[in-house]
Specification:
The structure is a single chain. The protein is an all-alpha fold. The chain has one domain. It contains 12 helices and no strands. Helix 1 packs antiparallel against helix 2 and helix 6 packs across helix 10. The radius of gyration is 19 Å and the shape is globular. The two termini are about 20 Å apart.
Length: about 270
């Protein structure tokens, strides 16, 4: 994988991890179009996901420090802190992880197999477009996250393991359908993905260690990391601005166009 490919794939990961247009789908299509072997792909995927994880950690570091303080406070005095708002947020995040953990451990090999099917990815991008477009008809939400709602958002997140189904698109859309305020929907969606991305990275690190990293790969991996980190930070920042302005459903048109182009291209080329 050369420097240009690393830059482009890092940019794709950074932008699409947070914009509701499916990072897994775009990476699959990007790798197919640009080329690249499976071994390099595993290592590169770990590195660029680490880049976007760092962008979330930096963007939300104040919230994470506050939540960490609330968590330690609960451990010291659970009776006094059980009704603390931040303690409830931690509980909601943990509950939202359950569906993804179940799907991840039971269907991981199957998901990895279908990950390489560009026709499926293209079709699922069109599905993502419909998910996003339907938020146009959601009334102005004013509610908050609850235990039941966090579980439903977690179920939506588990479906995003299918390449082409956007994680942020499905979770934020579900939150809006459930009446959760727009900014809170976005913040919860991105906070709940931190342990999911972290856990997925730990599973992939073992494979990466077995493959190893050559000196020739190091430069490309650094380019991919910093590109995904910087682009991810700004994508996260501006998505929240767009969501506040009620422009979330406009991403549906992009997903439909890319999905339709993908289906046409791969069908014509017999993929």
């Amino acid at each position: 994988m050369d420097s240009i490919q690393s830059f482009l794939l890092g940019l794709i990961q950074g932008l699409t991890e947070f914009l509701p247009i499916s990072s897994s789908g775009h990476l699959a299509l990007g790798r197919y179009i640009l080329g690249g072997n499976t071994e390099a792909g595993i290592t590169f995927e770990v590195v660029v996901h680490f880049g976007t994880l760092c962008s979330i950690l930096i963007y939300y570091w104040k919230d994470l420090m506050r939540l960490a303080g609330a968590g330690f406070g609960f451990l010291k005095a659970p009776a006094q802190k059980k009704n603390d708002k931040d303690v409830k947020v931690i509980l909601f995040i943990l509950v939202s992880m359950i569906p993804a953990l179940i799907v991840g451990f039971t269907l991981k090999d199957y998901v990895e197999e279908i990950f390489m099917d560009p026709l499926l990815v293209s079709g699922m991008l069109i599905v993502t477009g419909f998910i996003l477009f339907m938020t146009r008809f959601a009334k102005d939400p004013q509610g908050e996250v609850s235990l039941g709602k966090s579980l439903l958002i977690g179920i939506a997140q588990s479906f995003a393991m299918i390449p082409g189904i956007s994680r942020s698109g499905s979770t934020i859309s579900t939150a809006l359908y459930l009446g959760i305020k727009r900014e809170e929907a976005a913040n919860f969606s991105f906070l709940m993905v931190i342990p999911v991305i972290g856990g997925a990275m730990l599973l992939q690190i073992k494979e990466m260690m077995e493959i190893g990293v050559s000196d020739a790969q190091l430069g490309s991996l650094l380019i991919g990391f910093f590109t995904s980190f910087i682009s991810g930070y700004f994508a996260l920042k501006y998505l929240i601005i767009i969501l506040k302005k009620k422009g979330f459903h406009y991403f549906a048109y992009y997903c439909w166009v890319v999905g339709a182009i993908g289906l046409t291209y791969f069908l014509m080329n017999g993929v």
